[in-house]
Amino acid sequence: GSRFFDKKNDNTKPGSRFIDHDTQDYRNGYPGKVDNPCRNDNLRFYRGEIMSTPKGAFIDEIHDKWWGNYELLESHHGYIQWLFPIRESGMNSKAQPLQLHEAKAIKEDPKTKKRLLKSYKMILDFYGMKLQNEVTGKLERSENWKKCFNNFNRSSHNFLRITRILKCLGELGYEHLKKGFIQFVLEEALIRHTLVRTLTSCRDYWIGTIKDGQDRKELYNYIDQHQE
Asked: Which parts of the sequence are annotated with region: Disordered (predicted)?
């Protein structure tokens, strides 16, 4: 079997059991976590009713004016929790964890769901990637990929952002886009030797956000087959 697949019996990597617990909780829908019907910040933000904070903007303004502003997207630490809300607390105390009723409402409204897809495309562009197919989630390099890959490889806080982004996609109706993202990154890291520094995060965190066990197994096996 794959040396990365059976996480329960794998104590060789420091923290590997915690890591699996983290993504397992997510995959199981956070057992014991209660929805708070009074909290609606994420839904209101995606409806364009409130701005992100601190030093934020309305969602459409972020899409229009922040897209391609790589310096801002790199250095601003308050927007990612608003663009990609998840059911855990993050570094921005002004951002609210996603509530189940919000997730349902965002998924059911074509307008808010479309905005989330636009957020994903904007952040992909920042990382030097482009969504080639909205159905399969297949990615390709963007025109600025060299510069963007360089930055992506260098700043590991972006790896934490990716974990959040993938979890968010799964919460808000875009589970099918995750595998394409991870396949692209693995190909770049293992075949083209560009995004090599992402490999540990990919193996220990990102693959674990995928809910389909067969897909996870396939991706772990891919690493095993191509790692020297």
From this structure: 1-24
Exposure string (b/e) for 151-169, b if CB count within 10 Å is 16 or more?
bbbeeeebbebbbbbbbbb
Reported as a single tens digit per residue, the pLDDT across 130-148 is 999 999 999 999 999 999 9
What is the DSSP annotation of the chain? --TTT-GGG--SSTTHHHHHHHHHHHHTT-TTPPP-TT--HHHHHHTTSS--TTT---HHHIIIIITT-HHHHHH--SSHHHHS--SS--S-TTSPPPPHHHHHHHHH-HHHHHHHHHHHHHHHHHTTEEES-TTT--EEE-TTHHHHHHHHHH-THHHHHHHHHHHHHHHTT-GGGHHHHHHHHHHHHHTS-SSGGGHHHIIIIIGGG---HHHHHHHHHHHHHH--
Report the alpha-carbon distance of residue 71 to residue 5 in Å, rounded: 37
Give pLDDT tens digits for 59-96: 999 999 999 999 999 999 899 999 999 999 887 888 99
pTM (global) more than 0.85: yes
